[in-house]
Amino acid sequence: MRTFRFLEAEYRDGELRLGYAFDGGPDLVERLRFPDAPRPAPERAPAFAAALRLLHLIAGVSYYKAFAPARIEVAGQPPDPALAAALEEIYVEGLAEFAFRNGIELAGAVRFPASGAVPAPPPPCPLPRRALVPLGGGKDSLVALELLKAAGEPLLAVWVGRSALIAACAERAGVPALAIERELAPELFELNRQGALNGHVPVTAIHSAILTVAALLYGADAIVFANERSADLPTRVAGGRAVNHQWSKSLRFETLFRELLRRRVAGELEYFSLLRGWTELAVARRFARLPQYFEVFSSCNRNFRILGTRPASRWCGECPKCHFVFLALAPFLPKPTLCAIFGRNLLDEEALISPLCRARGRGRRAPLRVRGRDPRGAGRARRARGARGVARGRGAGRGRGLAPGVGRAAAARGHCSAAEGPDHVPARLRRVADAAG
Q1: Shortest CA distance to 294 belongs to which of 314, 279, 310?
Q2: pLDDT digits 0-9 by tens, 174-186
Q3: What is the distance of C-alpha 367 from the center of its chain?
Q4: Burial level of 46, CB count in 10 A (0-12/13-18/19+)?
């Protein structure tokens, strides 16, 4: 396959169809369904059309990767040079892990066609004060949601997909909620079955574009993510090139996407992470104060597979994400509570000791899918957990590998209390964002 083509994007009666194709092959049509969607408001029509185009171009990354061809064609007016450059960065950096695992090089190979046209600034787009809060089922988004609730912000919890787990979290939160359905073109799975390239895509970038459309449809002036600062850290360096599994959660992507919205969609629409300055331990510490979610939340990777089996319970206890969240919560929860969440004490199982060390970012095989691997954060985590006391329970018998509340006071001293570093949080929420720990 030598050419990847963007076909037409069409929205009608709450359903959006995004068309793609390779070298004159069958159309690949992705469908998104926005439940009970109102007719787009006339004053938002230019912004809505621009958001649809941006989503079409970004969501194409899921299909482009099947063959990563050298040529890209866009139906109608090609992107302007700045948009083309932004899309190339999103594809190259967002597919860096995919390229690493498949042994290919995308830097310099992804080339969007560009026109010489410079876009005019978007017209005014009146939006009501309301925050769209994307839920992923894990602790971070629930912490952000509860902070906004406490601040009295009007909000709408949103997620993409049909996850019963996320729906349960939204129900427990007791806030207005919206589930957007995304149906990938079925031909993509057949291509994968036949041997097409496959791997990680920048899901947060795609969801950000979907939520932009939702904000303009349902009326919201902010899209509020819950990405903390370790999302900026590469999960691997290969051949001198950083590979970041969470690149589309990074400050760099956030800045890039904000600029795309400001210059091409609607200057009134805010896009930012409320927890950008927080550490992963600060998020865990705050989540430990939200027991209403302990029975419903999960960050287990296997719960969110598109294909394949899922765990019978909310936590498989075997994937790197389970290991990492278990360790992150360990300083802040009593042993019986922590073990009740995960169904068992993961530190009681000898076979898991090495994977647990890798989940903390130790060893040459540290997983690509786990964040929070800042060397400073790892050192803080070791101190907060009482060094080896939580890492393995030296000399402890079965059931005693995790001492209740180990290192809780140490974790509270400075390691979790202050939000720091650059962010894009607006002034109206500055005090909320600074309330880490």
Answers
A1: 314
A2: 999 999 999 999 9
A3: 17
A4: middle
pTM of the model: 0.89
pLDDT at 404: 43
Gap between the Cα atoms of 70 and 376, Å rounded: 41
Which residues are CB-neighbours of 110 under 8 A, at least 6 positions away?
A: 68, 72, 88, 91, 92
* β-strand partners of 32: 16, 182
208 and 158 in contact (C-beta within 8 Å)? no
pLDDT digits (tens, 9 = 90+) for 250-269: 999 999 999 999 999 999 99
State the virtual CA torsion across 323, 329, 330, 331 in degrees, nearest 10: 140
Q: Which residues contact 414 (CB under 8 A, 6 or more apart)?
A: none
Pairing, β 222-225 against β 131-134:
parallel
Burial class of residue 398 in the structure, from the number of CB atoms within 10 Å of its CB (0-12 exposed, 13-18 middle, 19+ buried): exposed
